[in-house]
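Friendly challenge for the regulars: who can give me the structure tokens for this chain first? No prize, just bragging rights.
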Amino acid sequence: MLRQSNSFLIALLVSGSLLVTTVRAQDPFGLGSDPFGGAGEASPLDTGDTSTAAAAKPKDDGETDPVVLAIRKSNPTSPAELGRAIRNVVNLGRPDEAKKYITQLLGTSPDESTLVELHRELGSALFMRMTRDGRFAPEGPTLATMVLDAAYAASHDPAHLAALIDKLSDPDVAIRHTALVDLRAGGTDSVVALIGVLSDSSRVSEHAVIRATLVGLKELSVGPLVGALETRDEALLPQVIVVLSRLNASQVTPHLLRPYFTYDQDSLVRQAAEYGLKKLLNALPSQYDAEQYLARETQQYLDGKLLGRLDYENKITFWSWDVAKSAPVQQSYPGTTASLMMATRLAGDLYAIAPNNIDHQRLYLTALLESAKRANGLDQPLPTGDGTAYATAAAFGMDAISDVLEYALKQRKTAAATGAIEVLREIGNKELLVSTGGRPSPLALCLKHADRRVRFAAVETIMKLDPIEPFAGSSYLAEALGYFASAVGSRRVLVAHPRVDIAQSLVGTLSELGFEADTAQTGRQALRLSVQYPDYEFFLISDAIDNPAASELIQQLRRDPETAAMPIGLIARQDQFEQ
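First reply, four minutes later:
Bragging rights claimed.
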């Protein structure tokens, strides 16, 4: 959702996010409004004095039977005639009559082009009505699905989009306007295709009208264009920045800081970024303020700040740049994962602006590993190979990743800690186990970490390092090996309930959900079983348990490193529920 630049500036000033010096946006090329002379770029929507007369509505005198009889007398037979007949009787409120013509139309076995033409002439509303109104079933929904699917496929067809883009340069304003309307129907696929033209150096003559078209598509353009900001194409990047700036897309402001501070002053990318910052903020930040702002934003996203509004699946669409495709691509992620990906992106910009700052480097690598582990799956190893988070982190060396491990443990970023240990497994050596002042090293301390994934990763890494001599915390290794050796390889749950019948009932329910369950009738039994299997995924504890009571039992489970991070469900009796 777009925000006005003034509102964004006020928000930044109130929160102390950026301290800036107010300036007026001036065209670096003396052309007026932006590095590409955008003030003179006419949008295909600019139709001058051309106007379209409103279609006259047919007179409705309230009599329906004569109209129906007239339509029957016209004897519609072609798909176009049948389509118009369907529309007319639907508008008369006669679904019974419409079903006759729908059946007749389906009997013609219309091909894709015919269905697309029906959609073009009759519009989406008619067919959407057929899908929702049960009086048209089953014929109506069948035809509607065919038409809508065909129209969607056609509007997103690359060849169709390419043809529409060619029409944007047509001298006829009506053709340009129709092309823009049809491109809007193509959604973000149209925007991606338009960005592809901007990246084509052989089509420079079309770039001005393409930029104007992207502005004309308004909010539809923002997501793909934000993804395109990751490109390193120095011909494409400034155009993307200028279009987003002309759209007043305030969310682009953080992404302008990297090109503004890292490109040479005479670079077109730098000039476009300067134009964008001036237009969106009416100001230019200092490098110190930019670094502080990016560091705070990164930390907030790492701590759970949502990137945007969740959809019906509790996911957020994240746009990024696909180097192989040379195009922006979108993917939906759980809200927390999308936030971590944004944290990684901003932290990468922060590190690029000040690569010699060790704090920025540590924050970047933490965000990178936390995001990669959660996106790939906490129980899966990090993918290796060129361009992966693993390869990027490994390139920083053992000391840097060891520093990240210690930082991630302090910040309770267990996914980043696990990822760091995986990287150290391949690039590390026995120095990782050297203690300071008799205190175990961060890697050795991971052997007693509350998170089982961290413990297991540490065991694997230390076993690969194969230390010959004892090290501070070496006794933890034997304990961890014994713990993981007792795994049976099944999904397990511990149920602690004093009544055997209720416990067995829960066991049956959990079995239907794919879990094996163990039961304990006392708190003491629950404590003993809690460390018996490393396969436990959660505990279910009744508030009626005793010896010890539920409150004390939970406290003891939280004090034990092996169960401290275990999810616990408390089964409360009705009279104890509020407590």
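Residues 335-353 form the longest helix (19 residues). The chain is about 55% helix and 5% strand. Your move, everyone else.
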